[in-house]
Amino acid sequence: MIPTRLLRVLRALCLTLISLTVLSLGLRGPLGYAQEATKTDFIIEVNKPGNRDVPIAIPKPTGGSAMVDTVWEVVRHDLEMSGYFKVLNPDAFIEPASAGLEPGTFKFEDWDVPDAVVLGKTKVESVGDKVRAEVWVYDVPGRRKLGAKAFTGDPNQARRMGHRIADEIILQVTGEPGIFNTRFAVVTQRSGNKEIALVDVDGEGFTSITQNGSINLQPAWSKDGAKIAFTSYRSGNPDIYIADLARGRTTRLSARPGVNIGAAWHPAGDRLAVTLSSNGSGDTDLFMLEAETGRNLGQLTNASGIDVSPAFSPDGGQVAFASERSGGVQIYVMSAAGGDARRVTFNGGHNTDPAWSPKGDKIAYVSRDGVFDVFTVGTDGKGAVRITQGQGDNEDPTWSPDGRYLAFSSTRSGGNHIWMSTADGRHQVQSTKGKGGYSNPSWSPRLSW
User: Fold this and answer.
1) What would the pLDDT profile of 384-409 be if each residue is shown by its tens digit?
2) Whole-number Å distance between alpha carbons of 245 and 223
3) N or C: which terminus of the chain carries fewer CB neighbours within 10 A?
4) Do residues 376 and 363 make contact, with C-beta atoms less than 8 angstroms apart?
């Protein structure tokens, strides 16, 4: 029989070892509570290489309604998708149902048993004609509260409430909010035709944007999330249209002879870079068009061969694009006013589809070597990193608004679907599922709904 005093000493030693293990994983010390995050140290250092999945416990809220179940399932799934957490199996939880959310109403020791490092306690209830949710986030080894927040919403928006809770947990643990209150604009063939639609990052919440029965391609969000530019053959020619989401109205921006494709919004939202073949050379070049009228503001490129797929830098001062001016198709960067361009890809003979990171430091692109794969490279042309390999064709990269993730279309699971990856390629997860196929993703800014 081990004496009680010795058991206490051994338990204290075990807790110390757990804390040291947490620190060895790149986890920081306990943090105080703040309604608005003002912390400088966080459990997960977002930019630290080699971060491991942090064990997190998300006990199910009481109530047992379908709405509560949906919120809980969405939160757990979002956290798993994020690549930061190992979401623990609730079968291992021993906390009694009478435990509360606030400090002093539960025992941290109950969460040592499943080896939780982070604890996210939630409450979801109906208040009049609204739903109110609370989330409290704790550092288990540090025995401290990281933060708490309350949300209100409509009863029919349970999934959205779950996304908001997941984003708040990620904010309290990493110092930056999650990306689950964003959406993808995609090309889908659910109806048999290529139409533009919206889906949540987890693949749910399908919303049609076009239903014209034609071919619709290359959706591109405006930075304010209010509009989507895209190319459509609805009038027989590849023309550029803009869908105003708030007004539910679609207008044609450019219907010049030849191709009108590949629209990219300037961060200011007042103009777009596009690819046109109306200059009479037989090649495609980049032009700048006014967003309201489609008026030509100037030709940006005039080299031999094709120039396509413009992508603005975050400050709007530069444009990345694909060009065959050197023989094979490569990625180049030039001033947004046009002029000389510098090459930034040198490996492979066919590199296209550039997407500039919101952080400004990298450009994602697609390289073909038998199959299509996604890479990133520094804007100086150095440090190319392969994101996908041996997983079918992977195309159409697009960055999350915080630059922490990439999304792209992939054939790895059969047919085209949208996959999401951490920016270093470490964690990759499927977003869309089901029949019809999904491609050409464009990642929205954070949305206020």
Assistant:
1) 999 999 999 999 999 999 999 999 99
2) 13
3) N
4) yes
What global pTM score does this model have? 0.89
Q: In what order do the strands lie in the sheet with 216-221?
A: 216-221, 227-232, 239-244, 249-254
- Plot region of 364 (φ>0 → left; ψ -120 to 50 → alpha; else → beta): beta
Q: Is 70 exceeded by the pLDDT of residue 48?
A: no
What residues does each domain of the chain span? Answer: 4-174, 183-443
| Residue 51 pLDDT exceeds 90 | no
Contact between 364 and 374 (Cβ < 8 Å): yes
Backbone phi, then psi, for 187, in 5-degree steps? -100, 125
Torsion sign, CA atoms 353, 354, 357, 363 = positive
pLDDT bracket for residue 45 (50, 70, 90): confident
Longest dimension (CA), the chain: 93
Tell which residue, 119, 86, 138, 117, has the closest CA to residue 24: 117
- Topology of domain 4-174 in CATH is Rossmann fold (3.40.50)
The CATH number of domain 183-443 is 2.120.10.30? yes
The answer to whether 316 and 323 are in contact (CB under 8 A) is no
